[in-house]
Design a protein that fits this description.
- About 11% of the residues have low confidence.
- 16% of the residues lie in helices and 36% in strands.
- It has one domain.
- The chain is built from 2 helices and 10 strands.
- The protein has 172 residues and is α+β, with helices and mostly antiparallel strands.
């Protein structure tokens, strides 16, 4: 399985940072997503069942940043808690990828999630406001500037995945 990653940072008063990694498993997409604004961020593992099939896609996500913890179905909406729907071999691939993405690319604001040796992105850098999670300054040169801010994606990344997640993901 070849992993795909993408990161983006927008500027202005509503500045945000998001990061996404995923692997394709037949018609499904399994991965991890982070969305940060101001002083808050949300993280979750996810599974888009039937994303590349003709059947309607189903979005599952972890309730917390624990792949083995409780999961819910976000789209179509459901309220009951379920167990992790990811195959075990996929879990073992995604967890280290998530750790590497966080270590290599992201810096967390002060608090219990501060990563060791992480540099904080100052408010004035790249025109961005302070954010709970930022892209490390050493990685900014790899990002491209677009109309919506800075972005980076590995070859073959499918922007439809992030579009779907941002459209249907409920607040945690």
């Amino acid at each position: 399985m070849q992993s795909k990653i993408a990161l983006a940072a927008t500027s202005g008063n509503s500045g945000s940072t998001w990061a996404l990694l995923y692997v394709e498993v037949r018609a499904d997409v399994c991965g991890w997503f982070l969305d940060a604004t101001a002083r808050h961020y949300r993280v979750a593992f996810f599974m888009l069942e039937n994303f590349y099939a003709t059947a309607p896609a189903v979005l599952y996500r972890s309730v917390t940043d624990d792949v083995y913890g409780s999961w819910v179905r976000d789209e179509p909406p459901a309220t009951h808690i379920i167990r992790c729907p990811l195959p075990e071999n996929v879990v073992h691939e995604i967890e280290p990828l998530k750790s590497k993405l966080m270590q290599d690319w992201l810096t967390f604001d002060d608090g219990p999630t501060l990563l060791p040796n992480a540099a904080r992105l100052p408010k004035q850098d790249a025109g961005r406001p302070e954010c709970a999670v930022s892209i490390k300054p050493s990685k900014l040169s790899r990002l491209k500037r677009g109309t919506a801010g800075l972005h980076y994606a590995t070859p073959g990344f499918d922007a439809n995945v992030v579009d779907y997640l941002q459209k249907f993901r409920r607040d945690q």
